[in-house]
Amino acid sequence: MSxxxxxxxxxxxxxxxxxxxxxxxxxxxxxxVYLAETLKHCPSVLSVHLVNTTTTAITAALPWDLxxxxxxxxxxxxxxxDVLIELGGQIDEYQTAYLKTQGCRLISYCCGFEYIHVxxxxxxxxxxxxxxxxxNQRYDAIWMVxxxxxxxxxxxxxxxxxxxxxxxxxxxxxxxxxxxREFEHHGEYRPHGGAKRLTVMEPNNDIVKFCMYPxxxxxxxxxxxxxxxxILQVTNAERLAHExxxxxxxxxxxxIVRQHKAVFLGRYDTPQFxxxxxDVVISHQIENxxxxxxxxxCWQGYPLVxxxxxxxxxxxxxxxxxxxxxxxxxxxxxxxxDNNWEAYLARQRKVLERFLPDCPEVTAEYERLLSALLExxxx
Length: 379
Fold this sequence. Notes:
Layout (H helix, E strand, L loop, with lengths): L7 E7 L13 H12 L5 E8 L18 E3 H4 L5 E4 L6 H9 L3 E6 L3 H11 L16 E4 L1 H15 L3 E3 L7 H7 L15 E5 L11 H13 L4 E6 L3 H6 L1 H7 L3 H4 L3 E3 L5 H8 L2 E3 L9 H8 L4 E3 L9 E2 L5 H14 L4 H11 L8 H16 L4
Parallel strand pairs: 1-2, 1-4, 2-3, 4-5, 5-6, 6-7, 8-9, 8-11, 9-10, 11-12, 12-13
Helix pairs in contact: 6-11, 7-13
């Protein structure tokens, strides 16, 4: 089957659970919107719709522009698609079979570290689906973002019975900009005189993005330069501080905690906490070396101390699990950042250009992927 320029009709699945669902509780919906914006730049693409796979109503309460990113139900979309990208909501075997009769290609777009989620579910009693696991065997392609390939590629390939290929990771500042409009300086970093407010915003749902090493980095810096640190704020940690005796025991060994310079808070959205309560962000990841959170922080000009090697040219990078290296980078941020904050902001935005939806290299690669997909017979 061949397609003329601007003829492909593409759908990207989402799974809505609330009519006014927040964009900040996870990155999946942002991912769908960013991918939609990216594909709109491809020469072969005529239209891109977000396709909701749940029964939640689609209303104007959604946190994105329905004119720019039209959102429809599966029933509304199913007869008007050439490609469906399953990203944030799964279709069933009957929906799959119908699409195949219509000549529609089906892509599994993998943007989560699924192997790690499943390991944790099995080992630690975190139910995901029980015995009723549906694994679609009729994907025409598996696309995965680079940061999940090292841990989950073989998991994807064995269960889905298709080879998986790495695709460009894409991001857009539109949502962090939109959420930050109401804040002073549009939420961008400005020097804050005196001791600095350190922030850790890991989700703390698993070992992939956990707050302990960032707290250790803050502790090491506090031991050397207590006068430079006003407070350490650890969000998404209130439950740990109340329910985990082990977490409390470890934290109570830290000077920054024992001297009442640390607080363990609940959940906040990123733009608000950055704008109103933050001077420096400290982060740590395992097997997740690209993350929208890092990009949001750096786009807004905040110093980010992190170990994400796939974007090591952003922020203040330390290697691996090296807390001492992280401490050195944090002290560098504490003592020098305000002297060059404007140049830093400009540099971060320049670096992030390679992830934007209109980056020519990104457009070319997605156009190549679509072309290769269309050359294959439908599975």
